[in-house]
Amino acid sequence: MRERTARVHFAEMAENKLPETAEHLRKWISQSQAVADALPRAQQQLAIIEWAQKALEQRPAGAEVVSTDKLYRQCEATYKATIQSWPQFPETPKPTPY
Length: 98
Prior knowledge:
Blueprint: H1 2-57, H2 68-85
């Protein structure tokens, strides 16, 4: 009798875990879609940043002293906005096969 009760208990626990597992996967898929939707904007932002970096690195001799304080403040503000707007994701482990 005790063994049967334990089996029923484990079956009920398994039934509860299936909806929880399904909800976890639904949420993961939804979040992944949000990331996929934002990807073109992140790529655009990266292209602008890389363009600005290249322009700064290739500025003419003597131009390094022009407006450096204002330029630094703008770069610092851009950095902070980027870090806040585009948080890094935790590393996603490869799914294990069943």
